[in-house]
Design goal:
Layout (H helix, E strand, L loop, with lengths): L2 E3 L18 H7 L7 E4 L4 E7 L4 E5 L13 H5 L3 E5 L18 H15 L4 E6 L1 H12 L4 E7 L10 H22 L3 H12 L10 H9 L4 H7 L8 H4 L6 E6 L4 H13 L3 E6 L11 H17 L2 H9 L1
Parallel strand pairs: 4-5, 4-6, 6-7, 7-8, 8-9
Antiparallel strand pairs: 1-2, 2-3, 3-5
Helix pairs in contact: 1-7, 3-4, 5-6, 5-8
Length: 321
Amino acid sequence: MKAENLSEVSYGGNLAAFDEAGDELGWQVVNPNLTALKRIDIGDVELTYFEQGKGPLVVLVHGALGDCRSWSRQVALLAQHYHVVSYSRRYHHLNRSSDLIADYSYDRHVEDLIALLRALRLGPAHLVGHSYGATVAALVAMEHPEMVNSLALGEPTLFSILSESQDKVTLRLHRIALRVVQKLSENDEHGLAVREYLNIVVGQDVFDRLALEDMLVVNQNAHTLGPMLDTYFEPTKLDHSSAQTFRTPTLLITGERSPGIYGAITRELNKCLPAAKSVILPDASHGLQMENPESFGAALLWFLATAKRTTAEELLSAKRV
């Protein structure tokens, strides 16, 4: 399991040999100053990632329609104090054969993140995840707490945590709305599927207001949307019962304007997880780190500094005060 340094295809450079779409302009728009891309062998696949900074390990886990570039607004800030790794999950853009999707599931992505942490050989990590990626990070911490120092979860898709009757109604309506997206994806209408998905999870007509770099990323990952939705609502191992035994220091981040389903999940997690703190980002919906990067980054730095010196038991005691 070794990493391959793709120095000839760094951000802002000639990507023709690496990016089959040849989107050189797009890369320059996203961020020309990020460090060179690398690939790391985790067994049956290579994952693309970049790293920056020195210090304790922070691994960034992107959500739906994203890839390693989804955290471009946070990397430089975090890298002042931490060794930051941002990777593209299996099937997502910048990985080889990302259009051949055989098994898009939480279990698959959990296994990949565990393998990535082992391959990096940098010790336990602080995991930062958004949406689907936040669920993956939480499940890794549940299965292998020794590999995770702390968790920062931006509106995870942990639907299994919901137990209140009204929340289950909200979940049912969310599933119905996303069936339209799934049908569009099945009909290869990927552009319309992306637009409708963003309308549902972020806000009406948000696609036309995306920054150019964000529009590039979501379009290049449109092929993952249908396969993701195929297993999106499957139960996970993290439910009310298992959450009670969770001891990893956790920050729950939600947006002030986010759809109710994400607020409900965050509320339940905050009640269940003994070592949880929560932050509400002003002027943000489910896009979180893209919509309000300054507040998101500030919350991360505050929490990571706290997590370095505070045990889960101390956080639990503080929460009870």
